[in-house]
Specification:
- With 415 residues, this protein is of the alpha/beta class.
- It has a single domain, classed as Rossmann fold.
- Helices cover 38% and strands 14% of the residues.
- The protein is built from 14 helices and 12 strands.
- It has a 7-stranded parallel sheet, sandwiched between helices.
- Helix 10 packs across helix 12.
- Bound molecules: sulfoquinovose-uridine-C1,5'-diphosphate.
- Sulfoquinovose-uridine-C1,5'-diphosphate binds next to helix 8 and strand 10.
């Protein structure tokens, strides 16, 4: 297959690129290196050193079977003064030239805390995420009308679109409802907890509308937080994917692992009862590969709740502490005031049917072994990571965002 990955340079984009290449697929990777720059913007870096995109292409093509073409541009192009037709966007032109079998959309601002920093970051997140998806929807529509080719769109959404409802989270865009005594089919209720999660919920609704109006063929992946440093292909350092750990870009389990290596206390927020749907990098990449290779029927909008296990953030802290102490680290846990507005004890039970049908039954490696591998990889970077300790403690508060005007925002306003 020929697969276009928008956002190929990111934490998931890169391992998926090489998983597909290793299986003989050709990949076209688009990325404007936004995440690399935005992580620098908050004074942080990837905990694992990564190659430049050009070096990545050379390395991957020398090791794996498929080919990799790389392009650097934004897929959220929207300039109403210059462009009045989607056919004039770079992403349309690329899709039209290459005619891939599937397009994976990872090219979104992916951090909840980043979106909560202040007005600029909220507006950036909304604009980038919603416009990039809108460009893709219209590119798909024009190409289908003009050539008849129905390209499968694989879009990364998030489990966080649902929030933490008091019902089992359906794996479907629609549910049956009884409202004021009348039955109907309505969209699955959403309760996002940040501007980032809200932008993804908006994308899902836009794709659902494109599906009901025009028959968009798409897989929308509701994924929980991912952890890990390795996949089957990442067998040496030159193939590492990025690994974020700062308060803005790092996700909870990856952050705990860096904290453990640096002898900093692990930081469950609040009571630590926040339960989320987790999966390892290996299981995420394999699930994505199988979803790409097994598309839905033409005109279907397939929702996939992509995870293998659920844990509370306190349970995870205890597991990292146990594994860390087993390998001689001195790991402690210190709960801190929750900088977010979220329930820290709640019901949580998402449905999970589609991945088991594709053979992804449970985690391929138990979580303790996976944490062991992460801690080993990070321990080699300990000296360098010590210079970044100040970016680990949370500073972005959901309550005060919009009030704080940081120096960095002032600088941007003057540009
Ligand atoms: N948390 C802690 N301590 C920390 C960091 C986080 O207790 O040091 C808590 C948060 O308060 C939250 C939970 O851990 O309750 C998850 O936070 P996170 O930072 O790991 O994940 P989140 O902000 O929700 O976003 C991440 C990815 C995002 C993806 C999402 C899946 O950045 O791209 O969509 O996970 S989900 O969480 O299911 O929405």
């Amino acid at each position: 297959m020929k697969v276009l990955i928008m956002g190929f340079d990111g934490y998931l984009g890169w391992p998926l690129t090489i998983r597909l290449m290793a299986n003989g697929h050709d990949v076209i990777g688009v990325d404007n290196l936004y995440t690399r720059n935005a992580v620098n913007e908050v004074g942080s870096t990837s905990a694992l050193k990564i190659l430049t995109p050009t070096q990545r292409k050379i390395e991957a093509e020398s090791i794996f079977n498929g080919t990799l073409q790389i392009k650097n541009f934004s897929v959220a192009e929207f300039n109403p003064k210059r462009i009045s037709d989607v056919r004039d966007t770079k992403i349309y032109k690329l899709i039209n030239d290459e005619m891939p079998d599937a397009i994976v959309h990872f090219a979104e601002q992916r951090s909840a805390p980043y979106s909560m920093r202040n007005w600029w970051h909220a507006a950036y997140t909304m604009n980038n995420n919603i416009i990039s998806t809108m460009n893709l929807i219209y590119a798909w529509k024009v190409i289908k009308e003009e050539t008849g080719k129905d390209i499968h769109i694989v879009k990364m959404g998030t489990m966080g679109e649902y929030g933490t409802p008091n019902f089992d989270i359906p794996e479907s865009h629609y549910v049956k409802a009884l409202i004021n005594g009348k039955k109907d089919i309505i969209k699955t209720p959403k309760k996002a907890g940040s501007w980032y999660h809200q932008s993804k919920a908006h994308d899902t609704d836009n794709m659902g509308l494109a599906n009901s109006m025009w028959g968009l063929t798409a897989t929308n992946i509701m994924q929980g937080p991912v952890y890990g440093t390795r996949t089957k292909e990442i067998t040496k350092e030159s193939l590492y994917t990025r690994f974020d750990f700062d308060e803005t870009w790092g996700t909870v389990l990856n952050r705990y692992c860096v904290q453990a290596v640096l002898n900093m206390p692990l930081t469950p927020y609040g009571k630590g009862g926040q339960t989320r749907a987790f999966l390892s990098l290996e299981d995420s990449v394999e699930s994505l590969k199988r979803l790409i290779e097994n598309p839905p029927k033409n005109g279907e909008f397939r929702i996939v709740n992509q995870f293998t296990e659920t844990y509370s953030v306190m349970q995870l802290a205890e597991i990292v502490k146990e594994v860390g102490n087993e390998i001689g680290l001195n790991v402690s846990i210190k709960s801190i005031n929750n900088p977010r507005i979220e329930a820290d004890t709640h019901y949580y039970n998402p449905e999970r049917k589609i991945l088991p049908e594709l053979g992804i039954i449970g985690p391929t490696r138990d979580i303790k072994s996976e944490i062991h591998i992460i801690l080993d990889d990070l321990s080699k970077e300990k000296e360098r990571l010590q210079r970044y300790m100040r970016v680990i403690e949370p500073k972005t508060s959901w309550k005060s965002s919009g009030v704080i005007v940081s120096n960095e925002t002032k600088k941007r306003s003057k540009q």
